[in-house]
Write a structure and sequence with these properties.
mainly beta, 3 domains, single chain, 194 residues, 4-stranded mixed beta sheet
């Protein structure tokens, strides 16, 4: 079913354009009805069924359209809200706890620092670093601590200072071993964002 523009025109009769006009109404009913419920007998029963949105490239700036108080949109595949001043990410999980884990090649003390993870802004959490076990053996905890971030820096409270050296660059959690030989480690970061 297609929509026909410019129907009816001034030089057309209603009789000659009845079919395309009906097709246009059917098209609108189907396409708009995918995301909206319309009740022709009671306007209070008209509501959204869903809201499909394409990704925006950037957060909006400047004032909202006249008569509105906020704007929902999608950026980077996630839901966001703009109030005319600030853009907020909408939490998409039932809990505020997040985690990140993986394997990391920890450089030796003679090497430069390597970034293990870039932490999210405005978060607080704990970290655990394990010596990666060989086949048939388990991982052994050898370092843990806590951290907090603001918009562009990290504060680390390291518990075992003799096994890993730490540094930070903006939100990057940088590490290297205190021994000459590097090693492969497993890491787990658990953090919260208010």
């Amino acid at each position: 079913m297609a929509y026909t523009n410019n129907v009816p025109q001034g030089n057309q009769t209603i009789a000659s354009t009845t079919d395309p006009i009906r097709a246009n109404f059917a098209f609108l009913d189907t396409s708009v009805g995918t995301e909206h419920n319309f009740d022709i007998t009671d306007a209070s029963k008209t509501y959204h069924l869903q809201a499909s949105m394409p990704n925006k490239v950037s957060d909006p700036v400047g004032p909202l359209p006249v008569g509105t108080n906020g704007m929902y949109y999608v950026k980077g595949g996630g839901p966001k809200f703009y109030n005319g001043t600030d853009a907020f990410t909408i939490q998409t999980t039932n809990v505020f706890q997040n985690s990140s884990n993986g394997s990391f090649a920890l450089p030796g003390s003679g090497s430069g620092f390597s970034t293990m993870i870039t932490l999210p802004q405005n978060s607080v959490g704990t970290f655990y670093i394990f010596n990666k076990g060989t086949a048939g053996s388990s991982n052994i905890l050898f370092n843990f601590g806590s951290f907090a971030t603001n918009t562009n820096s990290v504060v680390i409270n390291n518990i075992l200072v003799d096994t890993i050296q730490y540094s930070t660059t903006a939100l990057q959690f940088n590490v290297k071993s205190t021994s000459v030989t590097g090693r492969t480690v497993q890491y787990l970061f658990i953090y919260w964002q208010p």
